[in-house]
Known about the structure:
This protein is an alpha/beta fold. It has a domain at 61-217: Vaccinia Virus protein VP39 (Rossmann fold, 3-Layer(aba) Sandwich). It is 29% helix and 26% strand. It is built from 7 helices and 9 strands; from the N terminus they run αααββαβαβαββαβββ. A 7-stranded mixed β-sheet has the order 5-4-3-6-7-8-9. A two-stranded antiparallel ribbon has the order 1-2. A hairpin with a 2-residue loop joins strand 8 and strand 9 (207-217). Helix 2 runs antiparallel to helix 3. The protein is globular, with a radius of gyration of 16 Å.
Amino acid sequence: MNMEARIRGIGMTSHRTRLRLVDRLRRGGISDESVLQAMVDVPRHCFVDEAMATRAYEDCSLPIGEGQTISQPYVVALMTELVVNSSMHGQPVERVLEIGTGSGYQAAVLSKLVDHVYTLERIRSLSHRAGSLFRQLELRNIKSRYVDGVDGWAEEGPFDAVIVTAAMESVPPALLAQVRHGGVLVGPVGPQRGSQQLAVMRCRDDKPPQIQNVEDVKFVPFLSGRC
Length: 227
Ligand code: SAH
């Protein structure tokens, strides 16, 4: 199948199947229409192995190799909603840093809604695969790097929001430091075995962040070093 046909999808990967997933997300409480539209527009089946493509629009996480997973669509939609609606005092959300590129799906969804997405991944093969997918899908506002995300991306910061898609036992200080005053860090915090709390941390200069726990989630661990 050529790339254009693959992106378009057929049967279990078609536009219609995507619309069914979006109905389900809406019933699950995702209400931001721009986020739901982004979930229709991004072909999730392109971000999983071809053998798994027919399951891409089930609301579940799937393996992407290297022991990692692409998050459940509901969790992607929820985190996206938390990021894009995090604006305070009319300051728009334009620049977002993601730690944990994985398949690239979360970054692709965000790229439909904000001006610039920066994304970091510590596993070489995943980072490279996602980078070439961004090019094939012509998602030109995503910049990705193969690096341990613990230090963030200082040269590109500060960011309106940082989204972490791996379970943190504690939040790396550099990531909080790269969120602009009034911006948020969104990500799972808690023990790496078992479940975590999806937290929204509102960052304020010279004060500890205000933390709101949104719901229980289960993510793969945030690890250090590249591999
Ligand atoms: N956002 C991804 C989810 C991937 S799972 C998606 O949409 O598919 C989490 C990813 O975080 C894994 O690929 C893992 O390798 C990566 N990760 C874990 N610790 C990291 C770190 N310190 N720096 C960068 N990436 C990290």
